[in-house]
Design goal:
Layout: H1 3-8, E1 10-17, H2 23-33, H3 58-63, E2 70-76, E3 79-85, H4 93-100, E4 105-111, H5 118-130, E5 134-139, H6 148-159, E6 162-165, E7 167-170, E8 178-181, E9 186-189, E10 204-205, H7 210-215, H8 218-234, H9 240-244, E11 248-253, H10 262-272, E12 279-281, E13 296-298, E14 306-314, E15 323-331, E16 334-335, E17 338-342, E18 347-351, E19 354-358, E20 361-364, E21 367-368, E22 373-377, E23 387-389, E24 406-411, H11 418-430, E25 435-439, E26 447-451, H12 455-468, E27 473-476, E28 481-485, E29 504-507, E30 513-517, H13 520-529, E31 535-536, H14 540-543
Parallel strand pairs: 1-3, 1-4, 4-5, 5-11, 6-11
Antiparallel strand pairs: 2-3, 7-8, 8-9, 9-10, 12-13, 14-15, 14-23, 15-22, 16-21, 17-18, 17-23, 19-20, 19-22, 24-26, 24-27, 25-26, 25-29, 28-30, 28-31, 29-30
Helix pairs in contact: 4-5, 11-12
Length: 544
């Protein structure tokens, strides 16, 4: 197979949703249809049923939520699929935003009984800013739902997306009997399966078939016929270019937990989604380079390998306590044992331990192409956002950073465990799920942690104990806001600054100065009394 053919068959996407809309369940069913697992897990499974493949962390299995990103890769009908399972909990939205930098499309899952929820809307806006094509799956049709026309209208009125139904529900909740495929003009009838464990049987016939009328409640049949007539007269015509531009979304209905409508969704998505596309290199200074890197578009067909790190995860293999860097290949061909440049340090590194991921499991990968996501083990110098390349004129700047919203002091209550505690905390901070800051007036032995949501603190404590056998003590820190300060001579003598009580100075991991405020009033007072100091809600290098 030629390089162009290898690239053309790649599909790399993430699933986005509000918590409990069915994202992780749908992920499991995709794996089932891709023959990656024969028996799909469910986050609501009974104790004697298998747990989900994508939720590998102990806390995830206990809570039935996703708090870590996982890469799941499988082949399906000639396509090489890279599915990035993202955290569902809003406290881990920053991790999800990073994952969205590595995909070429997104699948938005909506609970048919609730419509568009706040977290879905936030994640959609991230996709819109990046121009990511979006496909929509309206889930849980086997439960009581909102009117399907109202759900379609909400996509347009709330998100500004032009919806184009590809399948349409027949019935609602207990009377749900299947979906009508508008493209192929046939019906797929729904049959429940025990525990949703195996592929749902589907029978196909025309909407006018007597069997369909017999299966459906007369009112549901009449409603479906009327709704489909309305869609034909007033709906949007399918426009593939508009889908690829993120302006139009194909819409599918079904029930992920019962495996119904999932095969139609997967086939439609792979048919209409785009293969990997070009990425933009930025101008930056790299050690050992006489001139900055080039600001230009890097084609997927560029012969030199280039990639960027979008996530780091520790201890996916509890037996080895290793650290894996998730890398999105952007151009060229990856070959195991190849030597590339780590642009941030300017050093040459050999990529010898590369893996294809399947949740917690992995297998050695010898080659990869643009669009693929691979895991690199044993490179402690790699950080989130780093570029790895054979072409030293290329540098990527894909990863967003956000101002934290919650703060806490973390301390070690057991001096005898100091070594394990420090090693564990250092490793977990490298993952980038949350940030740490040096603060001038910190309590003795305390580390200031900052995150988007409080559940991140709980996860760090749980992982310190389960993965490093180190207990920790968490105490709320009295701050509501953190801002980065632009360099200024007055920072050399901070005692001369006019600061109200409770305000604290510090620095981030790159030694950039920051300031912490306990409330809005103290921040406003500081800005008023120190007009020469410029505050930013993003790191200074991103502002510039």
């Amino acid at each position: 197979m030629t390089p162009a053919q290898e690239i053309a068959r790649r599909r790399t996407f993430a699933i986005i949703s509000h918590p409990d809309a069915g994202k992780t369940t749908l992920t499991e069913k995709f794996l089932l249809y891709g023959n990656a697992v024969h028996l799909a897990g469910s986050v609501t499974a009974r104790k004697n049923q298998r747990s989900t493949t994508s939720d590998w962390m102990a806390l995830e299995r206990q809570r039935g939520i996703s708090v870590s990103s996982t890469v799941l890769q499988f082949d399906y009908r000639g396509h090489a699929v890279n599915l990035l399972d993202t955290p569902g909990h809003k406290d881990f939205s920053e991790d999800t935003y990073r994952v969205l930098t590595a995909v070429d499309a997104a699948l938005m899952v909506i609970d048919a009984a609730k419509g568009i929820e706040p977290q879905t809307r936030k994640l959609f806006e991230v996709c819109r800013r990046r121009g990511v094509p979006i496909f929509t799956f309206i889930n849980k049709c086997d439960r009581p739902t909102l009117d399907p026309l109202a759900l379609i209208d909400e996509l347009e009125s709330v998100l500004g997306l032009a919806p184009v139904p590809v399948t349409w529900p027949l019935g609602n909740g207990p009377s749900f009997r299947g979906v009508y495929d508008l493209r192929h003009k046939d019906v797929h009838l729904f049959e429940r399966t025990p525990g949703g464990a195996f592929r749902s049987p589907e029978s196909v016939s025309d909407l006018s078939d007597p069997i369909v009328k017999e299966k459906l409640d007369p009112d549901d049949y009449a409603a479906a016929v009327e709704q489909l007539e309305m869609l034909e007269g007033a709906g949007h015509a399918f426009d593939l270019a508009a889908v690829h531009a993120g302006q139009q979304t194909p819409v599918f209905f079904g029930s992920a937990v019962n495996n119904f409508g999932v095969d139609l969704l997967l086939q439609g998505f792979l048919h209409d989604s785009i293969p990997p596309t070009s990425r933009n290199s930025v101008a930056m200074n790299s050690p050992g380079m006489p001139a900055p890197t080039d600001a230009r578009e890097v084609s997927v067909t560029h012969e030199k390998f280039s990639a960027f790190v979008f996530k780091i995860q520790a201890n996916m293999d509890p037996k080895h306590r290793d650290r894996i860097a998730f890398v999105r290949v952007c151009s060229g061909k990856f070959s195991r044992d190849m030597v590339v440049t780590h642009q941030r340090t300017g050093k040459s590194v050999r990529l010898s331990s590369a893996h294809k991921l399947f949740g917690q499991d992995r297998e050695t990968v010898d080659e990869a192409w643009p669009g693929d996501v691979i895991g690199l083990v044993g490179h402690d110098a790699f950080g989130i956002g780093d570029t790895l390349t054979e072409d030293r004129t290329i540098a990527y700047d894909e990863i967003p950073r956000f101002a934290p919203e919650v703060f806490a002091w973390l301390t070690n209550p057991t001096p005898a465990d100091a070594k394990k505690y420090r090693a564990g905390l250092e490793q977990l901070l490298l993952e980038g799920v949350m940030q740490s800051f040096e603060v001038r007036h910190a309590p003795p032995g305390a580390t200031l942690l900052a995150a988007v949501g409080p559940l991140q603190f709980e996860v760090v404590q749980a992982r310190l104990e389960t993965e490093y056998n180190a207990k920790s003590r968490l105490t709320p820190a009295p701050f509501e806001h953190l801002r980065w300060i632009a360099p200024h001579p007055s920072l050399d003598t901070p005692e001369n600054l006019l600061m109200p009580g409770g305000v604290n100075l510090g620095s981030d991991k790159f030694d950039h100065p920051v300031i912490l405020f306990p409330n809005d009033w103290t921040m406003d007072y500081f800005v008023e009394k120190n007009p020469d100091l410029k505050l930013h809600d993003q790191p200074i290098e991103l502002v510039e």
